[in-house]
Amino acid sequence: MRAAVVEEFNQDLSIETVADPQCPETGVVLEVAACGVCRSDYHGWVGGHPKVVPGSIMGHEYCGTVVEAGAKAKHKVGDRLIAPFILGCGSCPECSRGVSNACESAVVPGFGAPGAYAELVAVPYDHNLVFLPETMSPGLAAGLGCRVTTAWHALTDRASVQAGEWVAIHGTGGIGLAALLLAKMLGARVLVVDVVEEKLQHALSLGADVAVNAAQVNAAEAIRDATGGGAQVSIEALGVAQTTNASVECLATLGRHVHVGMPAGDGMMTVNMRAIYAKQLSFFGTRGMPSWKYPRLLELIEQGAVDLGPMVAREIPLSMASAELRAMQGPTPPGTAVITDFSA
């Protein structure tokens, strides 16, 4: 099969012909229809993720059609499916409690297992997979595997956002845009923070109530001023110390910080604990979403309750994935890129 392989960190991915994946007994092999290019992939591409090594095939936001099914698989050849990026084992205590995104035995394609920057991808534990709605394009569906599902879980499970609350979103990349659109659907008032004016204007066009350019003002102070004392919820969508502290410091008393951005490197950073202590804040980590929450989210999208189409700005061939990763070294344009052509 054709795949984009990490041969050297910070260098263009190598487009190669590699062996087709073997079908897991408890899973399937998908012919990949689309795969998102995510900032988490960027961390792996630069050598900042311990499970991405030379020879890895990245790609964890994918959908496709079953071309081979294992003896214990739940799905059959021909099924069109989308995948959460965390594939829970289904039998551990965490999976039994409905929090498969916290499964210690989980498989994450692209991070320790071959991913979907390829024509085919093996998916173990296929009970995690969900049928792709007929009305949803593969390009849009691919983004649900990480950005949208992670944002939805952060807002509804971790933060329990209520209508009328102020939600501050630090970073307007894929997760930030998804959080904006979903928070507005939930009836929240939304502030977005970025350092790229074009991205802030794009967010305003999608319904953000307030935009804050952190390159020009102190973001936390601006948010406290705009909200009359601070946001009730703050979403950190970059994984760096500057935005983490701005997220904590912009909150009102008893506010909720949700850390969504994957920390780079060893993950260590200095955080303003005095703000957390003095304002009695809640500090939540979050990663992914349990697969059982997919049907409700898909139902809302199909019903037109939220339009996530504006998130996908570019559909690209496999050979352009390197350019998208390289662009993440600096300010990026609005919207996200999805690989939909694996032949070029």
From TrEMBL:
Residues 8-339 form the Enoyl reductase (ER) domain. It holds the Pfam family ADH_N. Keywords: Metal-binding, Oxidoreductase, Zinc. PANTHER family: ALCOHOL DEHYDROGENASE-RELATED (PTHR43401:SF5), L-THREONINE 3-DEHYDROGENASE (PTHR43401). Gene3D superfamilies: Medium-chain alcohol dehydrogenases, catalytic domain (3.90.180.10). PROSITE patterns: ADH_ZINC. This is Zinc-binding dehydrogenase.
